[in-house]
Structures are given as structure tokens and as C-alpha cells.
């Protein structure tokens, strides 16, 4: 039975409670929509592939002690040899960084010398050798790998460009949208820096960062055949299947056996890729959990508010319910009255809440470089809040429906 | 119209059984105006709540408008209350959140009546009790007498076969009470069946027939010694 008009009339006489619950629903909707959106973004980020076969890869961060950076080339070469000969190790190489490490090199890339135009794309630079693709487990989809004699040894400050580079497909497509990047040239500097030729394209390799600032070049990576001489060296090691746990212990031991003039210590010194991923997304995971907890608490408080107010109203209107029953209302009419009343407050709340949700998102877009809120989250939030309201009101509404008609004759 | 035969109503707790009505017999014909009187606690209000299907009874039979009601389910009882019975309560029992118009509309909405017909019936009923001009007022803005008139309009709007009034003037001063009684008499003259519970002997005399209830039973006043004792205590002739 249609009861909207009398319910509206009754609600007008109970403005305070009605407005409070409607505003609570509105605020909950606004916060929950945005929180769900943030959670989804974090979950999307957590599940981004690095382009590597992560299950068997280990990273060791090594700092040389009492050795000049420029003198590290033979030491690094010996280390890599030792690692490759360690039982359980399939392959290894030295590098400056790796996907999800948290720090690395980035630069602009152009199709003309840099001082003749703006960068076409932003990319990270990984300095690697001819073993890198095998260690990454990266898929070479066009061209070829580096050869051993293409790998040069250089000090970081002397590196301007290399004759050959391998790029990810994302970077290749950005530079050459027609898909014809292989064999083409690119510039990492001005006129005085020689161009590099793209000799290979890999399917995917993520940048070392996972923050929002690198979101627009997340898969733009460039491999340069350079063995860096530096006080700080990272070894990426690929273990044979099933032997990673052993290599975690044997690889650092092999390095220390080669030379003790080094420091391999700290939480981040020896990490499997599972740990690398865990460390990289710690904040994202924490934020997603925090947002989830906030959502649950807010929804629980809103549901409790609805239960509380409706229970109060049922108690307050007990005699009135008895009168309605005496005048012919069925139990279902009474149940429907309270459900409809809650739905009307809920609809008012979600209408305001949709505006608040969009406004809150626009503010975050302007302040925190957040993405625009998808309408799907608003729709899901609206449906969830209305269903929550109906579920919360059900118990007190059923209590109301049980008020007997004889209540009408009882004095208050 | 209303016939109760050997009807009983027992309130049971773990240790005691209390008979509110015992072997209660009454037969109200269509078009009658019956006053049910009796002292406090005699069972007259219990009779009215059972007659109005607000409560169930424990034993006996109750025929309302030819229908035996003891086996009806809750929905069927609601339907009968809505369509066949008009209630007038001592405390008026208007819904404070609704204005006069909306209050009178309540039982009509539960009947699923169309808006146009509802409007016609509401305005007719309010005209009849002389309160058409107060349709937009809220109960709190009306005097007690006016509120009871609204309650009567609400009872009349559904054109019930039976009007049940529980101390309809109990909360009113003499002047307002007189007005309400005149209205009830007028409604009766137009053909309505009215059963009015009252403890006021003066009001009872204005009904066509008096039924006296003592200790949950209908008694013949002339023959019942309890009535004579009661009268003696009150210092009045039997």
C-alpha cells in the first residue's frame, strides 16, 4: 500500500532525527565510495605484473668497503662469475636497480636530440649485461638480446648513451605508435650525445617505483648494456626451479667468499622477489586495509544509528501502531510502513551522499593527484547503503509489526 | 449484528488464572444503540476489545455480522476491523504527526481505496462532525471535543456496520461531552449500530438499551444481588 504521503508528513514532524540519519547516510556514502575507489586502485596496483618471472629471482644489494668505485669492475666481474657457479643458481648479473626496488634512474627520451624538442617519453634505465633477459625471465617479443661484446664498463657519471638499447613494448609504442620501433633510433641527450638504436623489444618490465608519480610511465623501461663501476652494486640472481630457498643462503656466502671488503646486511640486503613485492606495496596494502576497516566501521555505525533511531521511534509510537492496527492495518502494513520510512530517509541521504562523494573526489583529485571516481562505485555505494538501511530497520520494524491492536486501548 | 454466546476470556500466568469474561452472553441487533455499563474492572473494556477484534477470546462463540470470528487469521481480523468496525476511543487516539484530514484517511488507505473516493469520504465525514474547516489542523491544535469529533469522523468515514465507543466522553468536560453524545445519537438515528462502554449511568440512559456487566458477566440488574450491594454502597436506590 502506498504510504509515502503520510510517512512524509510524519517525518516532517521529526526533522531532527530524520536529518541526522540522512546526513549520516550521506557522509557514509561519500566516504565509502571514495574509500572503495582507493582500495580498488591499491588492489590494481598490487596486482600489476613486473614482467619478470618473480618466483625464482633473488636480489642482493652490495656495498663495497674501502674500494674506490672506479676499481670495482674486476670485483663485480668476479662476483658475477662466482654467483653463476654457485649450486642452484641458473644465472646472475649486476645492475643498478630492478622493478619495484623503490629507487633507480629515470630520464626523458626523444626521437630528436633533446635540446631540439621536448621529451617524447619518460623511462627508467636499467644497466645490464647479456644475461639480464634470462634472469628477469622477460619475454623478448622483437629483435635480439645484447651480445657479450656489446656490454661496456663505465662509471655512472660518464654514461650518456649506448649504441644499442632494448626497450619495453610500452616505451616502444610510446616512441613509435605505429609499432615500427625496432631498428629505430632514440636520443637520451642533446646533439653531442650519440643516438641509440633499438635492437630488441621486451613484452614488459616495470619501473622501480610504485607511487602515483610513475603511474604514467609504469612500464617504460630501457635496458642499456653497461657494467657500472660503483661502490654500490645490485646482483639479480635467478635460481633453478625449487632451489631459491637454498640460494638465499648460498649466494651471499659465495660473494663473501670472493671478497670480504663489502657489506651485505640489513632488511633489504638479500630479498626474494616475494619480499621485494611485499616491501614495495606495504603502504598500498596498509592503506587498502585501513580504508576497508574505516568502511566497515562507518557502515556499522550507520546501521547502528538506523537500528537505534527506528527502535526509539517504534517504542515512541507503540500506541500509534496499535491504533493503526485497530483501524485495519495488517502486520505487513506496519512492517512496510517502517521499511518505506527508512527507504525514504535513505534515498534522501544517498541523494546528498552522491553529491558529497563526487565533491570529495574532485577535491582529492585537485589535492592528491587522485583519479576521477568511477560512477560504478557511486552506484554500488548507493545500492549498498539502501540495502544496509533496509536490513538494519528490519528487526525493529518486525517488532513494530508484532504490536497488538489492543495496544490502542491501553493508556500510555 | 453482534452475538456472543458463553464467551470467556482468561488471562493466565504460571500461578493464576484470571477470568476477565465468564459465560458472557450478549446479542446486539442491527440498528441498536446499546450502552454497556459496569464498575471498573468488571470486564466491559475487555468485552469491547474482543467485540472489536482487538483481542482474541478463550472460549465460547462470537458472531459478528453473521461471521464466526474465532478461527479467523490476523489478516482477516484486520480486514473486518477496517471494513465493518468503527472505533471511538476514550483518549481519541488520533495520530499526532498527521493532520485532521490525514488522520481520517488512515483506515481508508488501509482499505486500498482510490484517492478520489477517499477525499470525498473524508470531507463528508468531516462535514458531518462540523470540522471540515479544520482539515489541515493537527490534533494538538484542537480542543478535546474537537479531537473526539475527528475520531468519530475517522470511524464514520469507512461506513462501518458497527460503531464501538469506549468511554467516548470520558476525557471531555460536560459541555463537550454533551456535544459528542448528541452526535452519536444523531448517527444512531441515521441507522448505525452503536455499542458504547461507559461507567456514567446518565450517559447510559441515553442509549436504547443498557447491558450491565459485573465480574465478567452480563447481569440482570433487577435480580442481581451484587448490583443492589453496589448501589447500597453508593447510597443510591436500586
Walk me through what this model shows.
The complex is a heterodimer of chains A (about 400) and B (about 240). Chain A is built from eleven helices and 13 strands. Chain A has helices at about 5-10, 15-45, 75-85, 130-135, 170-175, 245-260, 275-280, 280-315, 320-325, 330-370, 375-400; strands at about 55-65, 90-95, 105-110, 120-130, 140-145, 150-155, 165-170, 185, 195-200, 220-230, 230-240, 260-265, 270. In chain A, strands 3, 4, 5, 6, 7, 8, 9 and 10 form an eight-stranded mixed β-sheet that branches. In chain A, strands 1, 2, 11, 12 and 13 form a five-stranded antiparallel β-sheet that branches. In chain A, helix 2 runs antiparallel to helix 8 (about 280-315) and helix 8 (about 280-315) packs parallel to helix 11 (about 375-400). Chain A is elongated, with a radius of gyration of 32 Å. Chain A starts with a helix and ends in an 11-residue tail after the last helix. Chain B is α/β, with parallel strands linked by helices. Chain B has helices at about 45-50, 75-85, 100-110, 115-130, 145-155, 175-190, 200-205, 225-235, and strands spanning about 1-10, 15-30, 35, 60-65, 65-70, 85-90, 160-165, 195, 210-215, 215-220. In chain B, strands 6-7-8-3-9-10 form a six-stranded mixed β-sheet, with helices on both faces. Chain B has a four-stranded antiparallel β-sheet with strand order 2-1-4-5, with helices on one face. In chain B, helix 3 (about 100-110) packs across helix 4 (about 115-130) and helix 5 packs parallel to helix 6 (about 175-190). The longest helix of chain B has 16 residues, at about 175-190. Chain B starts with a strand and ends with a helix. The mean pLDDT of chain B is about 90. At the A-B interface, helix 1, helix 9 and helix 10 of A face helix 1, helix 2 and helix 3 of B.
Amino acid at each position: 500500500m502506498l504510504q509515502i504521503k503520510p510517512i512524509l508528513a510524519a517525518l516532517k514532524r521529526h526533522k531532527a532525527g530524520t536529518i541526522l540519519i540522512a546526513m549520516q547516510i550521506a557522509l557514509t556514502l561519500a566516504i565509502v565510495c571514495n574509500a572503495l575507489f582507493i582500495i580498488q586502485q591499491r588492489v590494481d596496483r598490487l596486482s600489476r605484473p613486473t614482467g619478470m618471472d618473480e618466483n625464482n629471482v633473488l636480489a642482493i644489494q652490495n656495498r663495497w668497503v674501502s674500494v674506490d668505485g672506479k676499481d670495482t669492475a674486476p670485483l663485480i666481474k668476479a662476483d658475477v662469475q662466482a654467483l653463476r657457479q654457485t649450486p642452484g643458481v641458473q644465472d646472475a648479473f649486476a645492475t643498478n636497480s630492478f622493478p619495484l626496488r623503490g629507487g633507480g634512474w629515470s630520464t626523458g627520451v626523444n626521437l630528436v636530440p633533446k635540446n631540439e624538442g621536448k621529451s617524447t617519453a619518460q623511462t627508467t634505465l636499467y644497466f645490464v649485461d647479456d644475461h639480464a633477459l634470462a634472469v628477469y625471465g622477460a619475454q623478448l617479443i622483437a629483435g635480439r638480446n645484447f651480445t657479450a661484446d656489446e656490454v661496456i664498463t663505465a662509471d655512472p657519471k660518464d654514461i650518456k648513451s649506448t649504441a644499442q638499447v632494448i626497450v619495453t613494448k610500452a616505451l616502444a609504442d610510446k616512441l613509435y605508435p605505429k609499432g615500427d620501433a625496432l631498428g629505430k633510433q632514440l636520443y637520451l641527450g642533446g646533439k653531442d650525445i650519440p643516438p641509440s638504436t633499438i635492437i630488441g623489444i621486451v613484452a614488459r618490465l616495470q619501473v622501480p617505483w610504485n607511487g602515483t608519480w610513475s603511474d604514467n610511465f609504469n612500464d617504460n623501461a630501457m635496458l642499456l648494456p653497461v657494467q657500472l663501476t660503483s661502490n654500490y652494486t645490485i646482483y639479480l640472481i635467478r635460481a633453478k626451479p625449487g632451489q631459491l630457498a637454498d640460494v638465499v643462503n648460498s649466494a651471499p656466502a659465495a660473494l663473501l667468499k670472493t671478497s670480504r671488503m663489502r657489506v651485505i646486511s640489513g632488511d633489504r640486503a638479500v630479498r626474494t622477489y616475494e619480499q621485494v613485492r611485499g616491501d614495495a606495496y606495504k603502504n598500498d596494502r596498509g592503506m587498502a586495509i585501513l580504508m576497508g576497516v574505516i568502511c566497515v566501521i562507518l557502515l556499522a555505525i550507520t546501521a547502528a544509528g538506523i537500528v537505534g533511531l527506528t527502535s526509539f521511534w517504534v517504542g515512541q509510537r507503540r500506541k500509534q501502531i496499535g491504533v493503526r492496527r485497530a483501524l485495519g492495518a495488517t502486520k505487513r502494513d506496519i512492517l512496510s510502513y517502517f521499511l518505506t520510512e527508512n527507504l525514504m530517509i535513505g534515498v534522501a541521504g544517498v541523494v546528498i551522499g552522491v553529491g558529497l562523494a563526487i565533491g570529495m573526489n574532485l577535491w582529492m583529485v585537485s589535492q592528491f593527484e587522485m583519479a576521477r571516481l568511477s560512477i560504478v562505485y557511486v552506484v554500488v555505494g548507493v545500492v549498498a547503503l539502501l540495502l544496509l538501511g533496509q536490513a538494519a530497520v528490519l528487526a525493529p520494524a518486525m517488532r513494530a509489526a508484532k504490536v497488538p491492536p489492543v495496544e490502542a486501548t491501553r493508556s500510555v | 449484528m453482534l452475538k456472543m454466546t458463553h464467551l470467556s476470556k482468561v488471562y493466565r500466568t504460571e500461578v493464576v488464572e484470571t477470568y476477565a469474561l465468564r459465560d458472557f452472553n450478549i446479542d446486539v441487533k442491527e440498528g441498536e444503540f446499546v450502552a454497556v455499563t459496569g464498575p471498573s474492572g468488571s470486564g466491559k473494556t475487555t468485552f469491547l476489545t474482543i467485540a472489536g477484534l482487538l483481542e482474541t477470546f478463550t472460549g465460547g462463540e462470537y458472531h459478528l455480522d453473521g461471521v464466526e470470528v474465532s478461527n479467523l487469521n490476523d489478516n482477516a481480523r484486520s480486514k473486518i476491523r477496517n471494513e465493518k468496525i468503527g472505533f471511538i476511543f476514550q483518549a481519541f487516539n488520533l495520530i499526532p504527526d498527521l493532520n485532521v484530514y490525514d488522520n481520517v484517511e488512515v483506515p481508508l488507505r488501509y482499505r486500498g481505496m482510490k484517492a478520489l473516493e477517499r477525499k470525498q469520504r473524508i470531507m463528508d465525514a468531516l462535514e458531518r462532525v462540523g470540522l471540515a474547516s479544520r482539515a489541515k489542523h493537527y490534533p494538538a491544535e484542537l480542543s478535546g471535543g474537537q479531537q473526539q469529533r475527528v475520531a468519530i469522523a475517522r470511524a464514520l468515514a469507512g461506513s462501518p456496520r458497527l460503531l464501538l465507543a469506549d468511554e467516548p466522553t470520558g476525557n471531555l468536560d460536560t459541555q463537550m461531552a454533551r456535544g459528542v453524545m448528541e452526535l452519536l445519537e444523531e448517527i444512531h438515528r441515521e441507522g448505525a449500530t452503536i455499542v458504547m462502554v461507559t461507567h456514567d449511568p446518565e450517559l447510559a440512559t441515553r442509549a436504547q438499551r443498557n447491558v450491565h456487566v459485573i465480574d465478567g458477566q452480563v447481569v440482570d440488574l433487577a435480580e442481581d444481588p451484587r448490583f443492589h450491594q453496589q448501589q447500597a454502597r453508593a447510597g443510591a436506590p436500586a
